[in-house]
Structure formats: C-alpha cells, structure tokens
Amino acid sequence: MTHVIDGNAVADRIRDDVQNCVTALEDEGVTPGLATVLMSDDPASETYVSMKQRACDELGIEGIHRKLEPEASADDLLETVIELDGDPTVHGILLQMPVPDHVDGTNALRHVDPLKDVDGFHPENVGRLVAGDPRYKPCTPHGIQKLLEAADVDTDGSDVVIVGRSEIVGKPIANLLIQKAPGGNATVTVCHSRTNALAEKTRQADIVVAAAGVPELVDGSMIGAGAVVIDVGVNRIDAETEKGYELVGDVEFDSAREKASVITPVPGGVGPMTIAMLLYNTVAAASIQTGVPVDLP
Ligand SMILES: Nc1nc2c(c(=O)[nH]1)N[C@@H](CN(C=O)c1ccc(C(=O)N[C@@H](CCC(=O)O)C(=O)O)cc1)CN2
C-alpha cells in the first residue's frame, strides 16, 4: 500500500509547536512580527501572501503587509525593504517571489537584514546553509525534510534525484540532503530541463523530488518500484471549476502512486509545509533578535 503523506496534518503539528513559541515570546513581552512584501498582480502570489498573513493572524504573529505595484521601481522596493529592516517590531521580512523582470530580485534580497531573512535567501544565509551551519533553512526544503521525517523515510545513504535547480527549492534541498546531519547524508543528483536521459536517472532514485514547475513532468514510468516521491509543483491549470483552474503537481499522481511506497499529493502535500516553516522561521527570528529562548524541534 502506498503511503500518501498528509501535508496538512504535519503542518498542523508544526503550527502547534510554533504556537507554543509565540506564547513563550508573549510571556516575555515580545510579539513576533512578519512583514510580507508583494510586488506583483499574479493571482497565485496574491493567494500565497494572503495565506501567510492569515496564518500569522491565527497564531498571534503580527502580520504587516506592503503591496507595491508591479510597475514600481527597483528603488521603491529597496526603500520598502530598508524601512522594514529598521522597524524593531518586524522580526521577519519576506519578499514574495517572483518579482517583475525589471527588478533585480537578488539585489533586493541582499538588502534584507540577514537576521530578518526568514526565507533564508540572503547570500549570508545561503552561505551558512552551504557551509553546514544554517540559520534559517529555506521554508519549502525544510518542510520537505519534516515531511520525510514524519513518514519515517531515512535519507541516510539514499540516492536522491532532484528535478529542478531553483534558488527556492532545488539548490537548497540538495544542500540540506547532503549535510552530515539527521535528515541528510544522502547522495544527491540535481537534474533540470537540459538533463540527458532524465527518466533513467529518476528511475534509479530512492527518493525523487520534483520541483521543476512543469505540470505532470514526472510520471510513473520514471519512478522505480518502492521509491519515495515528493511533489513540489503547484501549477494552476485552466479548468471548469468554481475558481476557473485546478491545481496539478509536477508529478502525474495516479501513475506515480502505483510505483511509489510514499508520495505527496497536490494540493495538501508540500504546499502547507512552506507556510508552516515560514511561521517556524519567524519565531526563530524573533527569538534570535530579542534573546528570548524558544523551543523549536
Ligand atoms: N519569498 C518566497 N516566494 C515564494 C516561495 C517562498 O517560499 N518564498 N515559494 C513559492 C510559493 N509559496 C510560497 O510563497 C507557496 C506555494 C504553495 C503553497 C500552498 O499552501 N499550496 C496549497 C494550495 C494553495 C492554493 O489553493 O493555491 C497546497 O499545495 O496544498 C503555499 C506557499 C513561490 N514563491
């Protein structure tokens, strides 16, 4: 029987842990604060940011939101980031990705105070992750580690194939999985759209992480018997539903499920973990900046 991981249930447990940390901080007079910055009219990005703000409300984290028009200048964005850097009630700053093409997102991220960089995208935090001493683990990769742990998947000595080399998922999950640490010690191959014989590579893997942003790129014929399949894709496909679309992963679920021992669904798999781990990083950031200890597993 294939185990379909319930990402919402795992995320709820993380949120309970975060809630306890919020209470511990409040007891010492600290209200954790998270600022989201959105410079886009993309409906999916708007949805993610409002989900993040709602999650803050639910847990007693102070949510601050800054919306910039997509036509705003790179300087407007930098001004917003610098203002939030200087606000002591803001412990975490998140710049929703992607930003418009005329803005250098990498440069904007360099202006986020590394202690407030709860996405873990600032070069200092990326460097720490690569060096094996992460401050804030990027949310989606950290969420994947937590899902594997919850499903009792041992990464030690396993062969992992990651499909996708993004800064947000592909590169950081590769770095986490090769670390000498629980949830690491794997042998990792990072593939992408130009990889030769992709299916041959994925078929050899004990764990396949699909994070290419291509709907149903990975099907059952590309999965070895008994492999673990982690689907990071959340693609909106036009459909005659109430919302006008349906969500489809990077994995063709039905055929992959027939081969896999463990698989994540879309929706309800990795997505909810991204938000749970953002809340986790926010209380960690509030703790680091105020010196009030919190107990995060
Ligand atoms: N600054 C960042 N930008 C982006 C990140 C990120 O981690 N930091 N990740 C992605 C999108 N993302 C968060 O921003 C995200 C994606 C999906 C979900 C989620 O909960 N998905 C649900 C379905 C939600 C829906 O109805 O659309 C699910 O999979 O069950 C949360 C966050 C890109 N940008």
TrEMBL record:
<keyword id="KW-0658">Purine biosynthesis</keyword>
<feature type="domain" description="Tetrahydrofolate dehydrogenase/cyclohydrolase catalytic">
    <location>
        <begin position="5"/>
        <end position="119"/>
    </location>
</feature>
<dbReference type="InterPro" id="IPR000672">
    <property type="entry name" value="THF_DH/CycHdrlase"/>
</dbReference>
<keyword id="KW-0511">Multifunctional enzyme</keyword>
<keyword id="KW-0028">Amino-acid biosynthesis</keyword>
<feature type="binding site">
    <location>
        <begin position="164"/>
        <end position="166"/>
    </location>
    <ligand>
        <name>NADP(+)</name>
    </ligand>
</feature>
<dbReference type="Pfam" id="PF02882">
    <property type="entry name" value="THF_DHG_CYH_C"/>
</dbReference>
<dbReference type="InterPro" id="IPR020867">
    <property type="entry name" value="THF_DH/CycHdrlase_CS"/>
</dbReference>
<keyword id="KW-0521">NADP</keyword>
<feature type="binding site">
    <location>
        <position position="234"/>
    </location>
    <ligand>
        <name>NADP(+)</name>
    </ligand>
</feature>
<dbReference type="GO" id="GO:0004488">
    <property type="term" value="F:methylenetetrahydrofolate dehydrogenase (NADP+) activity"/>
</dbReference>
<keyword id="KW-0378">Hydrolase</keyword>
<dbReference type="GO" id="GO:0006164">
    <property type="term" value="P:purine nucleotide biosynthetic process"/>
</dbReference>
<comment type="function">
    <text>Catalyzes the oxidation of 5,10-methylenetetrahydrofolate to 5,10-methenyltetrahydrofolate and then the hydrolysis of 5,10-methenyltetrahydrofolate to 10-formyltetrahydrofolate.</text>
</comment>
<dbReference type="GO" id="GO:0009086">
    <property type="term" value="P:methionine biosynthetic process"/>
</dbReference>
<dbReference type="GO" id="GO:0005829">
    <property type="term" value="C:cytosol"/>
</dbReference>
<comment type="similarity">
    <text>Belongs to the tetrahydrofolate dehydrogenase/cyclohydrolase family.</text>
</comment>
<dbReference type="InterPro" id="IPR020631">
    <property type="entry name" value="THF_DH/CycHdrlase_NAD-bd_dom"/>
</dbReference>
<dbReference type="InterPro" id="IPR046346">
    <property type="entry name" value="Aminoacid_DH-like_N_sf"/>
</dbReference>
<comment type="subunit">
    <text>Homodimer.</text>
</comment>
<dbReference type="InterPro" id="IPR036291">
    <property type="entry name" value="NAD(P)-bd_dom_sf"/>
</dbReference>
<keyword id="KW-0368">Histidine biosynthesis</keyword>
<keyword id="KW-0554">One-carbon metabolism</keyword>
<keyword id="KW-0560">Oxidoreductase</keyword>
<dbReference type="Pfam" id="PF00763">
    <property type="entry name" value="THF_DHG_CYH"/>
</dbReference>
<dbReference type="GO" id="GO:0035999">
    <property type="term" value="P:tetrahydrofolate interconversion"/>
</dbReference>
<dbReference type="GO" id="GO:0004477">
    <property type="term" value="F:methenyltetrahydrofolate cyclohydrolase activity"/>
</dbReference>
<dbReference type="GO" id="GO:0000105">
    <property type="term" value="P:L-histidine biosynthetic process"/>
</dbReference>
<protein>
    <recommendedName>
        <fullName>Bifunctional protein FolD</fullName>
        <ecNumber>1.5.1.5</ecNumber>
        <ecNumber>3.5.4.9</ecNumber>
    </recommendedName>
</protein>
<feature type="domain" description="Tetrahydrofolate dehydrogenase/cyclohydrolase NAD(P)-binding">
    <location>
        <begin position="138"/>
        <end position="288"/>
    </location>
</feature>
<comment type="pathway">
    <text>One-carbon metabolism; tetrahydrofolate interconversion.</text>
</comment>
<dbReference type="InterPro" id="IPR020630">
    <property type="entry name" value="THF_DH/CycHdrlase_cat_dom"/>
</dbReference>
<keyword id="KW-0486">Methionine biosynthesis</keyword>
